């Protein structure tokens, strides 16, 4: 296939996976790019219009100037393989998953050498971004190419995000605690419902607010955080061992 680049006055941005986070991308980026989205389930016309996107097949979306992969971990490698067959030279390929080591390796291995690869993790979701994304954080891991600085500058200047440049390994080490424990504690506390809602302390209210931000996440998000992160198991084991030790001390 002849891989020739084309010049356009307005960059195209393709979104692969138009669930809750894909829609959040559409909400905040339709003013800057021509958006086209693909999802395995047909995107209703009214939903596409609401978020300022047009819908298209995977091979067409994969030819965008910027391609954002917002698909589940289970289908990630298959999606990257499809993108690799048709993507433009010089394109920016971005993922937005909660784990970075494995997806980064897959993208580096499968995508062509003439594309830019940037692994990212927006440290927020639709719930925590309900009032806007300005001031929220995003982790960026440069994997291939030289455009990550321009990409980061756009996120800072136009969206007001706090950009954290890191590596996939450093990201996963921190995320195993930051996200792993948050979702783990939320799961346990939700299993103890009904929780008090009237006679509460400020600290408990803050804890409840944190739970509300993650309790509606798709099940595959929790699976990825706890199983795909290579450091999550150790953090989880340490947490439960320390909890068991504290419980034993209290029972004495």
UniProtKB/TrEMBL annotation:
PROSITE patterns (UniProt xref): PDH_ADH
Gene Ontology terms for molecular function: NAD+ binding; prephenate dehydrogenase (NAD+) activity; prephenate dehydrogenase (NADP+) activity
Any single Pfam family the record assigns to this protein: PDH_N
Transmembrane parts of this sequence: 12-33
UniProt-listed Gene3D superfamilies: NAD(P)-binding Rossmann-like Domain (3.40.50.720)
UniProt keyword Membrane, yes or no: yes
GO biological-process terms attached to the record: tyrosine biosynthetic process
Keyword Membrane among record annotations: yes
Residue span(s) of domain Prephenate/arogenate dehydrogenase: 11-252
Keywords: Membrane, Oxidoreductase, Transmembrane, Transmembrane helix
Source organism, top-level taxon: Bacteria
Protein name: Prephenate dehydrogenase
Species this protein is from: Sedimentitalea nanhaiensis
């Amino acid at each position: 296939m002849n891989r020739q680049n084309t010049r356009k006055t307005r960059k195209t941005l393709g979104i692969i996976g138009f669930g809750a986070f894909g829609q959040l991308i559409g909400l905040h980026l339709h003013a800057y790019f021509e958006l086209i989205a693909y999802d395995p389930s047909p995107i209703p016309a009214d939903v596409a219009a609401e978020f300022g996107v047009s819908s298209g097949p995977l091979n067409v979306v994969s030819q965008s100037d910027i391609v954002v992969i917002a698909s589940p971990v289970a289908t990630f490698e298959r999606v990257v393989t499809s993108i690799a067959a048709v993507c433009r030279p010089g394109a920016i390929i971005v993922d937005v998953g909660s784990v970075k080591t494995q997806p980064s390796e897959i993208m580096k291995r499968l995508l062509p050498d003439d594309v830019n690869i940037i692994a990212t993790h927006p440290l927020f979701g639709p719930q925590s971004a309900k009032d806007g994304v300005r001031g929220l954080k995003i982790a960026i891991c440069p994997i291939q190419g030289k455009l990550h600085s321009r990409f980061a500058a756009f996120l800072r200047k136009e969206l007001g995000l706090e950009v954290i440049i890191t590596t996939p390994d450093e990201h996963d080490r921190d995320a195993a605690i930051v996200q792993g424990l948050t979702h783990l504690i939320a799961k346990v506390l939700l299993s103890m419902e009904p929780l008090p809602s009237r006679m509460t302390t400020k600290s408990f209210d803050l804890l409840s607010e944190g739970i509300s931000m993650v309790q509606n996440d798709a099940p595959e998000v929790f699976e990825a955080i706890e199983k795909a992160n290579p450091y999550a198991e150790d953090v989880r084991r340490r947490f439960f061992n320390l909890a068991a030790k504290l419980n034993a001390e209290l029972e004495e």
